[in-house]
Design brief:
Layout: E1 3-9, H1 14-23, E2 29-34, H2 41-47, E3 51-54, H3 63-74, E4 83-88, E5 91-93, H4 97-107, E6 111-120, H5 127-135, E7 141-143, E8 150-153, H6 154-160, H7 171-181, E9 185-196, H8 203-224, H9 233-256, H10 267-277, H11 282-290, H12 292-308
Parallel strand pairs: 1-2, 1-4, 2-3, 6-9
Antiparallel strand pairs: 4-8, 5-9, 6-8, 7-9
Length: about 325
């Protein structure tokens, strides 16, 4: 198999060592792209046999930029690989994943991307780990998007120009929009793919990560929100209505019109109950409802940055 792996990371420590080790038997070359680590990630990656690419620290870091740098290095190999396994440095690749994914692409010539099941390594470490593990559990079959771990055709990536390096989040779904527009397919198969360590134990981390998600929704909608794609439009609308509209109507109405407007805030607990009655666990119902607040803040952050021309910065939760 002519497959290369591109691993991206920053200060991943032991997670990176596990990641590279999990790829050694399945790919021709592991390329590690480092985004300004201050720990021993670069030294450890070289010791593990990875080809290391150091990103220029004078240019803002993004995961998309790192993946593009890894792709460019892979295409310099002789001969260049025809498949690229992208994986985040905090993940460990399942022993059978590369073989299964490569076979799927071989059998499905219209598929540009195939991904499988990403799981949290420590799902019981915190409620945030359980939430993230469920987030990864997307439906099997033809999909609209993938995440950061996926096996991709190198020629399809080149044809659409790779990842959008300006995006600070949501770069994989945005890439998948362009791939689908070019006639390619995205697939999620029923196979174990990676173990992920979100390392999230504090509410503040969850809030920041969710705010980043709102930023990604807004930027994706700005790029591809027009019909027929309508990329991220529904997610952006829900966040604005539930996360910004509800409190604004309650506060402004309650202060300047009539106190009865404060009852609008009951829409939030009512939504939690509605989701619970539909079978969702209480913790997921609560955090899914609450998530609209930081998502709305992320949307406003993107809008303000676009209005002022302020350069976007990474939103890091750890």
């Amino acid at each position: 198999m002519n497959i290369a792996a591109v691993v991206i990371g920053r200060n991943e420590g032991d997670r990176l060592i596990r990641c590279i080790a999990s790829l050694q038997q399945g790919v021709r070359q592991v390329i590690y792209v480092d985004s300004g680590s201050t720990d021993d990630s670069v030294t450890a990656a070289r010791a593990a046999g990875a080809d290391v690419v150091l990103l220029d620290t004078d240019v803002p870091f993004t995961a998309a930029r790192a993946r593009n740098a890894g792709l460019a290095r892979a295409l310099q190999m002789t001969p260049p690989p025809d498949r690229i396994q992208f994986v985040d440095g905090d993940c460990e690749v399942d022993a059978g994943w590369i073989t299964r994914a490569a076979a799927f692409l071989e059998d499905h010539p219209q598929a540009a991307v195939v991904c499988g099941r990403r799981r949290e390594r420590f799902p019981e470490a915190s409620v945030y780990h359980r939430l993230t593990d469920h987030e990864w559990d997307t439906p099997v079959g033809q999909a609209r998007a993938c995440g950061g771990d996926a096996l991709m055709r190198a020629d399809a990536l080149q044809a659409v120009g790779g990842f959008n390096p300006a995006m600070i989040a949501g770069e994989e779904p945005e890439l998948c929009v362009r791939l689908r527009q070019a006639g390619w397919e995205i697939w999620r198969i029923d196979a174990e793919m990676t173990l992920h360590d979100v390392a999230m134990t504090r509410f503040s981390q969850w809030w920041t990560r969710t705010r980043r998600g709102g930023h990604a929704y807004a930027e994706g909608a700005a790029l591809h929100g027009a019909p027929p794609e309508r990329h991220n439009v529904a997610q952006t609308r829900r966040a604005l209505i539930q996360g910004a509209g509800v409190p604004l109507v309650a506060v402004l109405g309650g202060l300047f019109v009539h106190p009865v407007f404060w009852l609008v805030l009951l829409a939030w607990p009512a939504q939690v109950v509605r989701l619970r009655l539909r079978g969702m666990p209480w913790h997921r119902a609560f955090f899914l409802t609450l998530s609209k607040l930081p998502e709305a803040l992320g949307i406003f952050s993107y809008a303000m940055g676009r209005l002022t021309g302020r350069r976007k910065k990474l939103i890091e939760y750890r």
